[in-house]
Design brief:
Layout (H helix, E strand, L loop, with lengths): L1 H21 L4 H10 L3 H5 L13 H5 L20 E6 L8 E7 L3 H14 L3 E4 L6 E7 L2 E11 L10 E9 L2 H7 L31 H10 L15 H13 L7 H5 L15 H15 L29 H9 L24 H13 L8 H8 L9 H11 L6 H6 L13 H7 L2 E4 L2 E4 H9 L3
Antiparallel strand pairs: 1-2, 2-6, 3-4, 4-5, 5-6, 7-8
Helix pairs in contact: 8-16, 8-17, 12-14, 13-14
């Protein structure tokens, strides 16, 4: 039956073609011919169904394009595998610009990226996450930036796409705005007169004027002679308030030089909840020790001379805190190549001070002798810390020795009763000051209050 239909179909087609040829001048034939002809647009621009002319999915063509502001600071590191989702520009009431990003990478990867980028590119880290999620706050010259990292679920994920993602929010204050509201600096280190500067340093810290042996020794004892009044001590926990007040009266926590204080109309803020840097704690440590033992030169920490070879590659001789940091290294109070630690070639002055580092630097000044050998089991049995395994082996001996001071221990005085030490957690300014209020062991030590009494004594 199929064979019978094929000749009929061929015959019909032949008749149609013959008619079109014979009547090519007929208007009706012309219309029929044009309707059957190929579309010239399709010949010149072939299109694959489901894609645009550029080969992109039609859904992508409809997505709005979000671009960074033209003045986005190049110094701010951007995570490569993250897509910009939203930009909130600054307003008249808020000078902060906010950008929101989304990445398919886990949060711990992104946190590790920003931690290393900020540290390696001379950012002063004011706050950083204790775990894999949280917020970085950093400052570089006159640029303030906050990076918040949080995991989140993805609504209606595309095929073969993960159901979870990481949100990255980068907030910053543009340079032009922030410059008008902050004190400009020529480098990343606070200088005398800067509200962030805290002594002691040599009286003349200009790079062109070297530190002499005489003013090095004098600085250690006289930099604490001016008392300091803070207007925000009401924000300090009640149990730590008197400790900070005593140290402030001794002048250990001064944040402004007398000249700058006289020209300033603003009140002085202690900012007790702010994270303290390693550089700042080194200043306070030397200043507190030398102020508490003003008449005992054998217990004072000597500041390094300008001619000394630097122990750390990132603390040069021209650094205002070189005499303090180098002095601590030469006294063997902080790990360095001088003490046999070949891995401690960097001091990282602007990195946050951690709890274990605070104890490691402070306890040798309490015991005034070599620390006994310690192991993990001993720390677990004495302190009962659930996270003792996270403590750096270098700090174990200091943590164990601190336990021998019982109620006068730094850990109990600063953190109270706790079964979690959280050794990698950054230390606040209030906590650091509380640790420096007392030097010594149980029944054999001197507090800042004792030093004040001695200072006020007529004799």
């Amino acid at each position: 039956m199929l064979l019978c239909k094929r000749p009929a179909a061929l015959l019909s087609l032949a008749v149609l073609l013959t008619s079109l040829t014979a009547c090519s001048n007929n208007p009706a034939a012309k219309n029929l011919e044009n309707s059957l002809a190929a579309d010239p647009k399709l010949q010149n621009s072939p299109v694959v169904f489901g894609e645009t002319s550029k080969g992109e999915p039609q859904s992508a063509q409809n997505e709005p394009t979000v671009q960074l502001p033209a003045d986005f600071p190049k110094e701010i590191p951007l995570y490569t595998n993250a897509k910009l989702q939203e930009v909130t520009p600054a307003s008249s009431s808020n000078n902060q610009v906010s950008t929101r990003w989304l990445s398919s990478d886990p949060s711990n990867f992104i946190t590790s990226f920003y931690r290393s980028q900020l540290q390696d590119n001379n950012w002063q880290i004011l706050q950083q996450p204790a775990d894999d999620v949280g917020t970085f706050e950093a400052r570089r010259n006159d640029l303030l930036v906050k990076v918040s990292i949080q995991p989140q679920s993805v609504t209606n994920p595309a095929p073969n796409q993960p159901q979870t993602a990481t949100s990255i929010v980068i907030d910053y204050v543009p340079n032009s705005t922030n410059t008008a509201q902050s004190t400009p600096t020529n480098n990343n280190t606070p200088q005398p007169g800067d509200p962030q500067f805290i002594g002691p340093v040599a009286p003349n810290t200009a790079t062109s004027q070297p530190t002499t042996p005489n003013n090095s020794t004098t600085t250690a004892t006289t930099a604490t002679s001016t008392s300091q009044e803070f207007s925000d001590l009401n924000k300090v926990p009640q149990e730590l308030r008197q400790h900070i007040q005593d140290l402030a009266t001794l002048g250990v926590l001064s944040v402004e030089s007398p000249a700058n204080k006289a020209n300033s109309n603003s009140t002085n803020l202690f900012e007790p909840g702010k994270i303290i840097t390693r550089r700042m704690y080194a200043r306070w440590l030397v200043a507190a020790n030398n102020a508490i033992y003003p008449n005992n030169s054998a217990k004072q920490i000597r500041l390094a001379r300008e001619s000394t070879q630097p122990a750390f590659s990132d603390v040069a001789k021209i650094d205002p805190d070189f005499p303090v940091i180098q002095g601590l290294a030469e006294a063997g109070l902080i790990p360095s190549p001088l003490s046999g630690d070949a891995t401690a070639v960097l001091f990282r002055p602007d990195a946050p001070l951690t709890r274990e580092q605070m104890i490691l630097w402070k306890v040798p000044l309490d015991t005034r002798q070599a620390l006994a050998t310690a192991n993990l089991d001993a720390v677990k049995q004495t302190w009962g810390f659930q996270d003792a395994g996270k403590i750096d082996p270098k700090a174990l001996r200091a943590v164990l020795a601190d336990f021998q001071s019982a109620e006068q221990s730094n850990i109990r005085r600063v953190f109270g009763y706790t079964t979690l030490f959280q050794p990698k957690k950054p230390v606040t300014r209030a906590e650091a000051a509380a640790a420096l209020w007392y030097f010594g062991t149980l029944g054999d030590g001197v507090s800042a209050a004792d030093a004040l009494k001695l200072k006020r004594s007529p004799t």
